[in-house]
Amino acid sequence: MMKIDVFPHILPRTFHSQMCALSERAGFMIQRTADIPAMIDLEERFRIMDRFPGYQQVLTLPGPPLEVLGNEKTSPELARIANDGMAELVEKYPDRFVAFVASLPMNNIEAALAEIDRVVQQLGGRGVQIYSNVNGKPLDAPEFRPLFERMAAHDLPVWLHPTRAVNFSDYPVEKKSHYEIWWLFGWPYETSAAMARLVFSGLFDSLPNLKIITHHMGAMAPYFAGRLGSGLDLLGVRTSEEDSALVQHTLQRRPIDYFRMFYADTALFGAAAAMECGLAFFGVDHVLFGTDMPFDPEGGPGFIRDTIGALDAMNLSSSDRAKIYEENARKLLKLPVRQIQNA
C-alpha cells in the first residue's frame, strides 16, 4: 500500500548553509541535526526510505521558525531560500517527494502573503507551515487573519507545528524549563492552546472550508474530549465577573464541533493507544499519515517503522487504512496520481 508521509522534516542544503551563518539563533537545531545525517544527506535519506515500500514524503522544514531566525527585514529572504530549495528537491526527485510545504516569514505578514502566492502559483507548493505562536503572539491576533483567508482562497492546508523553547520555564519562580518539559508537555499544550484560540476567534465560522493539519494528532484535544465537550458547554462558570469578557464568544456551534474540524497527523512515535484515541476523535477522513522523520533515536527509520506498525495493528478496513496512508493527503493537497519508484 502506498504511504504519503505529510509531516517529515528536511533541510535543503542551501537553507542549511544560511542557518549555519545564523548560528547564534539556530545553534540548537544545527547541533541537533549534526547527529541526524538524513536531515541533509539525500543518499542516507533515500536508503532509509527504501526500507519501506511505497513510502513517499511531503517535505516540511524543521524549526526554529523563520521569524526566530531573522527579523522582519531578513526573514522574507530566508523563506525564499528555504522554499526554493524545497521546490528544487520535489522537481528533481518526484518519485520520492510528492510535494512540499512552504515556510513563511510570519513577522512580516505582507511578505508572508506574497510568499504564499509565489509558492503556490510559481513553485507548486501544496500548503504552508506555521507555528503555534509568532514570537509570543497568538495566532488569533488580527494581523494573522489574512494568512488564513489567503489559504482558504487557495483551498490548500495550513500545517500547524508547536514551538516553545527552554526559556519558557515550568514554574514562574524559575528561569528555564527542566528535563525538556518545554518540549515534552509544552509542545502539546502550545498546539492545543493555538487550536482553542483559533476556534474561539470564530475562524471556522468565517472560513468553514479552511483546512489546518495539526502535528502529533491534535495534541491534547483527543484525550480531553470530555473537557472540550461538556466542559466547554459550561464556558464561563469558572470565570469571575471581572474577567467575563475573556470568555465571551458568538460561535454558531458547540466548541467541540470546531475542534473536530481540524485535521491531524499520526506522528505519535508509534503510540498505538494515542492513535486510537485521535482517530476516534477526528474520524478517519481527518487523519493523515505523518511520522516526524528523522527525529527518532535511530535518525530516520524508527518513527516510520513504529507508526506503520501501530497503524497496521489497528482494526481498520482496507479502505480506511488507504485514506489515512494516502487518499486523505491526495485530496487535501490536490496531488496527482504518481508512479512510485520503490513500490
Q: In words, what does this structure look like?
A:
There is one protein chain. The chain has 343 residues and is an alpha/beta fold. The chain has a single domain (3-235, 242-333), classed as Metal-dependent hydrolases (TIM Barrel, Alpha-Beta Barrel), CATH 3.20.20.140. It is 44% helix and 10% strand. The protein has 15 helices and 11 strands. It has helices at residues 13-21, 23-33, 42-49, 66-69, 75-92, 109-123, 145-154, 181-184, 186-200, 203-206, 225-233, 255-259, 272-282, 301-313, 318-333; strands at 3-5, 55-59, 97-100, 102-103, 128-131, 133-134, 137-138, 158-161, 212-214, 263-265, 287-288. The strands form 3 sheets. Strands 4-5-8-9-10-11 form a 6-stranded parallel β-sheet. Strands 1-2-3 form a 3-stranded parallel β-sheet. Helix 5 runs parallel beside helix 6 (109-123) and helix 6 (109-123) packs parallel to helix 7. The longest helix has 18 residues, at 75-92. The radius of gyration is 19 Å and the shape is globular. The protein starts with a strand and ends in a 10-residue tail after the last helix. Mean pLDDT is 95; it is low at 339-343.
Keywords:
343 residues; TIM Barrel; globular
H/E series: EHHHEHHEEHEEEHEHHHEHHEHEHH
Q: What's the shape? A: globular
- Domain module tally: 1
Helix content: 40-55%
